Amino acid sequence: MNRTVRILTGVVALMAAVAVLAPVRADQHDSTATPEQLVAAYGSLADTILSAKKTELNLVHSILATAYGHAQSTMASARDKMKAGKDARSEVEKLATLVSHLGNEGDAAVAGVRKRLVEAGHHHHASTEQRGQFEEGFVIVTRAAKKVFMDAAGQIGKMAAAPNAAALEAEWQKVQKQYQGLMATGK
Amino acid sequence: MKGALCLASALLALLAPACGGGAKEPPAPPAPSSAPAKPAGGFRFVDVAREAGITRVVLSGRPGKDHLLDSAGTGVAWLDYDRDGRLDAYIVNGWKLDGERVVEKGRNALYRNRGDGTFEDVTDRAKVAGEGHWGSGVAVADYDGDGRPDILVTNFGPNVLYRNRGNGTFENVAGKAGIEVPGWNTGAAFFDADGDGDLDLYIAGYVDCTLEEVLRAKPVLDWKGVDRVAVGPFGLPGAPDHFFLSDGKGRFREATEEAGLTDKGLAYGFAVRAADFDGDGDMDLYVANDSDPNYLYRNEGNGKFREVGLWSGAALSAGGAAQAGMGVAVGDYNGDTFLDIFVNNFAEDYSTLYRGDGKGFFEDVSEPAGVAQPTFKVLSWGAVFADLDSDGDEDLAIASGHIYPQVDAHPEFGITYAQRNLLLENTGDGRFADATDRSGPGFALVQPSHGLAAGDYDSDGDLDLLISNLDGPPNLLRNDSERGSWLTVALEVPPGGGTVIGTRVVAKVGDRTLVRDLSSSESFLSVNDPRLHFGLGNARSVDRLEVLWADGTRTVLTNVEADRFVTVKKGP
User: What is the ipTM of this complex?
Assistant: First the structure.
């Protein structure tokens, strides 16, 4: 979380503390109502939390966009090499890895961060996880999309030893279509 | 930041309950196999552990299993420590707790085979009781090349490496060797990673926690809304895996990062199995991770590795989900000469059979192979591919037991804490049939079983099963099954002449080709018989027996008579 959000969180916490410690005034209109200061503090905190969730969404977008960008350029390199009759095994394997990272919403290091969030009880899509739509802790990539990416990564990886340009294009089309679909709807 | 996120997550948790990702549907029952059914009475296993003298009770934390360590269980090993030609047994032990109090630190046990069906407890004489640590798994290999098998015990705590002195005793050299790495260590594999003739070592790490955290743990994880169980592994930080390069003189140095084996996801690692999965002549590495994608590290040919699990097909289920990988078995179930992988998973999820193509790619064939349905309800830990009826194809034996004793209070879910182990019979057409109910009293036992190792302890030509159970003595399931012909191959290299670990043996029997490879550990943190068993069915001999040694050289024997033990020695 950036410095601004940290500061805002601290201010909200301070407001909440003041509200709790401030004596209840005898002339308050409704003595059963939650003190206004606390409601205000909670409202500010809600803004912070929702803002953090939006930040998380944007960050995962960036992770996917970065992986996709690398995959695009790797695909281009693979195409060039195959066209030139050169060995494209390394590029194709790299492409397989990048596509698998799309499916996994990042590499193993990202998975470690995601696990830490889940450890703390954070699920970006708690209710839809329960319906099986997302893996635990995933933000944008649905289970269905993950399967598409993983299947494509597997097919691409298998081609590495003897890449076939047409088959590779076909798998790449699937990746592109799935990625674009996710980016259009992921929230 | 962390505090605000925790508050945020707590709020979100209140609004929408946290979950485990959606209930899995049980697989449909398999279609009937086209192969003829085995006649009744084919398989028969009988538990003879007590008569045999294998009685060490495996201590396993608290009765309520407040922490995952309480219910993780331990491994078992077959080895011939005194090189008298008879298989000895080693049982790893844990601790007993009462609340936050350590009641008893269990002692591992080494049982020497007397050759008459009984064993003698030689633990104290051999000095292999485990140094008072909470034991986890075991791997066996001649790590120092002196011709004698040594024992690595992975622990919750510092690991122990028992170097075989050759006089019936061992000494713990883990500190000198540089491989103690205190932590929650689980699976381990000795293998020649860089092709220099000595054995390197990979050790998996599970969860990063202290003994104090274990002792203070309380079951606070909501289970199906009806009870509270031990937290984890999600909710607990993962522990890193470690890789050690041997200097060829009995010492190791940590080389995890330089070898490309960094556990970037801090996955919850359990079983480890080294093998040449892509058929290119060097040793690759497979790590079963609990609730994380499994790792497949491909050896790039120079001791450097590349993690290719996610696109190799061996990391996730067919549906793209990470499963609760615990034990690993490697074999060739369909007789196509390519290594396949079987991974044990959690209850209400199937255990996974990955069919290999010999080039390092795998496909989850659990459902079509008939493995998914019988393994769905149980929580399985250890597994072995073994031709238990010597009919020429490898069956699957699976050790099962739940981790939450609380499930017994809720019979409506149809899950029990103590479970029957499974015997899945290979029907010879790429499928398995559940033969558990017709495998004798040994498979009728209901225990929380974890470690499992196959070995021919009575030297009668068939594979028996050694099983460790939580809070109870082991089972020794003697194989009394009807069976076909067999051949068992022992491998020897002269001291200083390299290693037998990683050796592959190929037997041509008529139009069939049978493949076995030798590893230092398998199943759930356990060790199988170092002699490789081949079931030959009706054949009276092996036409051609080819031994592909770890250094790439070969030894070939022809017309090897069936129903005997053969020792193949590597030439100079």
Answer: 0.78
